[in-house]
């Protein structure tokens, strides 16, 4: 009986030690979890603070960039303002004589009389201008809308087939009608002939295809061209 009682006492003591050991392990594990949770919370707070700091820095940089852009825009406007004022003043003071039409940097006079090519050019030169020279598709379209059948400053009178403008320049853009120039010739006297050596713009629904060569002694209206003029200011 004594042996049995002793054995039971030993088992009870062993179970007590196991319970105490399990409690200690649970406490240690709980403490470890608490410490780990505290570390995670601390790191999270620090991380959030760093993110907020980065966002604040980005916002400040964006504001500084916008301020610099605004300053640059204002400086550019201040720099360009005198140039714009000078350009507006220049454009305001560029004009054409009364009775002339302005297009880009040229003035155009549309005659109402009819004369030969040489007579027409003489009239233009008397006005400080010359027969119109076509330099671009835009000018061709504009001039074509000014009148129906008129002389332009183009001829091949001195060398057949070599068309030149009145300023001596060669053709760069051409707007001949289909089949033109045909350089038809007309009998004059003896063995001499008159050729179609002068160019006109004739009425057409196609403004980019309305040039025609005709005899220079044909009677037509004409268009003169001169550069725009500037008004003089007296201080």
From TrEMBL:
SMART domains, per database record: CLECT (SM00034)
Pfam families annotated for this entry?
Lectin_C
Entry-linked InterPro entries: C-type_lectin-like, C-type_lectin-like/link_sf, C-type_lectin/snaclec_domain, C-type_lectin_CS, CD209-like_CTLD, CTDL_fold
Q: Does the keyword rRNA processing apply?
A: no
Taxonomic superkingdom: Eukaryota
Alphabetically ordered keywords of this record: Disulfide bond, Lectin, Membrane, Transmembrane, Transmembrane helix
Q: Which residues form the C-type lectin domain?
A: 103-225
Q: Does the keyword Membrane apply?
A: yes
User: Which Gene3D superfamilies does UniProt cross-reference here?
Assistant: 1.20.5.400, Mannose-Binding Protein A, subunit A
GO terms (molecular function) for this protein are: carbohydrate binding
* Entry's transmembrane regions: 24-45
CDD domains assigned to the protein according to its UniProt record, in alphabetical order: CLECT_DC-SIGN_like
The molecule here is called C-type lectin domain-containing protein
Q: Which organism encodes this protein?
A: Astyanax mexicanus (Blind cave fish)
- What high-level taxonomic lineage is stated for the organism? Eukaryota, Metazoa, Chordata, Craniata, Vertebrata
